[in-house]
Write a structure and sequence with these properties.
heterodimer, A: six-stranded mixed β-sheet, four-stranded antiparallel β-sheet, 12 helices, B: mainly alpha
């Protein structure tokens, strides 16, 4: 990739013997949104802290916006924005005061900082609440102000560490739409999340991280395809017939969800499977509410890549 | 980078001033608390053990020194809050001078302590207390007190960076009291059991209080403590300033 926004080669970081990053590799192209997806403790936050110069890596070559995060930390800081897991704001000050403070620390000067604060408050729909102490903000407002604070200088690269954790659906939608509008402006975004839906919605490419390294990478579609392609879902009218249906349908690797009266199985030939299932059900007189072919969800991909069966396979 | 050191430090100081503007009651409480202690010890408990001359003349310099010592709590609390709120991560990920966070903290705390001294001296004067020695002695005394406060400030920053948790602040807040009172701020060491008097004599705060009393011409004050009142804080600074700066740098470990 020519001139990537983020390059990580063999990043390592340990805390007291525990490896948070264990040879992690990552390349992010400029102007894209890259999702880093992983369970708790996978190393996502450590990765963001290393990339944003807050933590010094033990080993590895790590460059952000063309500058080394250790040797050229200052140059990196000029070019990044950071939205951490916890609101990085002065809770006692007002929204405007916060933005002006960060603007001055970005050396925009008094007038520049004030103008930028106005602009961002307007853009994030906080103009009316700029005087209120951040302590009194709602979760969604606080997150938007935090995001505004990380955009003071139109950063080349923006890090979002679980940006919607703890937000209600409305707050989440607000943050999502803000992120989408950013990308239009050419900013590269690295986003960590535990929510597959979030990665699916926002990210161009996704790295699945587990135990401090990348275990899979690709677009959401590629990851779904990698997990074994299409699936067929069959919803029966009568849950009592699930067992009979599993026995007679021409499918293998069937999983059953009794609460939803649902059978699900991977398929290779889509049309063959569909017509076979419909025929078998009709012949046996089992009534189906729904029969559908679909791609696997990212949840299934995620569990497949980071779940127990994955670990067993690795150990074997 | 260093080109911005002054601007950034000033910006961080202004941040603290803006917080005062946001919480005037908090600021007022901080300034009035020492006055309350002065009134309590001067009138309520009063008398003072073994003090020659008016107890008020002995007590006011002691309260001035005690107020400087208690400043440690405020510094530690503020730094701990910043560390736990995540805002320090934003500062550290920004292209600002590294030390500005600590310089801003110091400047604001020193300013608040200077204000506390002015208030306390003002109230003392209103109650009829008249320090001897004239304006030069008064300035010298304030200088010694602020030097002691500066040492307390860096101990506070260091403790906050080491402990880092609000629970630890509480523990230190409780411990500051006996350490503060194990001094000659309120009572003459000679009136205490021998071993206690020795401990009290060693307390750096006792030297500051004695030197201030000497400057104010309080009768019965041992003279010659000015050097100790200068050297003790400098020694504490020589230890805790580099430790705190190193700890701050190690946040990236």
């Amino acid at each position: 990739m020519a001139d990537p926004a983020i390059t990580v080669e063999g990043a390592e970081k340990s805390y007291g013997g525990k490896k948070a990053l264990d040879g992690l590799d990552l390349t992010v192209a400029r102007g894209t949104v890259h999702g880093v997806l992983g369970p708790n403790g996978a190393g996502k936050t450590t990765l963001v802290r290393v990339l944003s110069t807050l933590l010094r890596p033990d080993a590895g070559r790590i460059e952000v916006a063309g500058h080394d995060v250790v040797r050229e930390a200052y140059a990196v800081r000029l070019r990044i924005g950071l939205l951490g897991q916890h609101a990085a704001l002065d809770e006692e000050l007002g929204g405007r005061q916060n933005l002006e403070l960060f603007g001055r620390l970005h050396h925009l000067g008094a007038r520049g900082a004030r103008a930028r604060a106005d602009e961002l408050l307007e853009r994030f729909g906080l103009a009316d609440t700029g005087r209120k102490a951040v302590r009194q903000y709602s979760g969604g407002m606080r997150r938007r102000l935090d995001l505004a604070a990380s955009l003071i200088t139109e950063p080349e690269v923006l890090f979002l560490d679980e940006p919607t954790t703890g937000l209600d659906p409305r707050g989440r939608a607000e943050v999502w739409s803000s992120v989408r509008s950013l990308v239009g402006g050419g900013t590269t975004v690295l986003l960590t999340t535990q929510y597959l839906e979030e990665a699916d919605q926002l990210a161009d490419r996704i790295s699945v991280v587990d135990a401090g390294r990348v275990v899979a990478e690709g677009t959401a579609d590629e990851l779904k395809a990698e997990t074994g392609g299409d699936r067929i879902d069959v919803v029966l009218r009568n849950a009592g017939e699930l067992g009979a249906a599993v026995a007679l349908l021409p499918l293998t690797g069937v999983s059953v969800d009794a609460d939803r009266r649902l059978l699900s199985a991977p398929v290779t030939d889509r049309m063959e499977a569909l017509s076979g299932v419909v025929r078998a059900l009709r012949e046996a007189g089992i009534e189906a509410e729904d029969v559908a072919l679909r791609r696997p969800t990212l949840d299934e991909v995620f569990l497949h890549l980071t779940g127990d069966d994955h670990r067993v396979k690795e150990a074997a | 980078m260093s080109a911005h050191a002054l601007t950034d430090s000033w910006t961080m100081t202004r941040r603290e001033l803006a917080r005062w503007g946001r919480q005037p009651v908090q600021l007022a409480v901080n300034l009035v608390f020492p006055v309350m202690l002065l009134l309590m010890f001067g009138y309520l408990i009063g008398g003072g053990r073994g003090v020659t001359g008016a107890y008020r003349d002995y007590l006011v310099p002691g309260m001035l020194a005690l107020t400087m010592a208690f400043g440690l709590e405020g510094t530690m609390l503020a730094v701990t809050q910043d560390l736990n709120k995540g805002v320090i991560d934003r500062f550290r990920s920004m292209p600002m001078a590294n030390g500005a966070v600590l310089v801003g903290r110091s400047a604001a705390d020193m300013l608040q302590s200077a204000m506390a001294l002015v208030v306390l001296i003002g109230v003392g004067a209103a109650l009829g207390w008249r320090p001897g020695g004239g304006p030069a002695a008064l300035l010298a005394a304030v200088g010694l007190l602020l030097l002691f406060r500066f040492a307390m400030l860096w101990i506070g920053i260091h403790l906050a960076l080491v402990a880092g948790k609000p629970e630890m602040v509480q523990a230190v807040q409780i411990l500051v009291w006996p350490v503060g009172f194990l001094s000659n701020a309120l009572a003459v060491p000679g009136s205490m059991p021998g071993w206690l008097g020795t401990v009290v004599g060693w307390n750096p705060m006792s030297h500051t209080a004695t030197a201030v009393r000497d400057l104010f011409g309080v009768p019965g004050t041992e003279s010659g403590h000015a050097w100790a009142a200068i050297l003790w804080p400098l020694a504490l600074l020589a230890v805790f300033f580099p430790l705190a700066v190193r700890r701050f740098g190690r946040l990236s470990r």
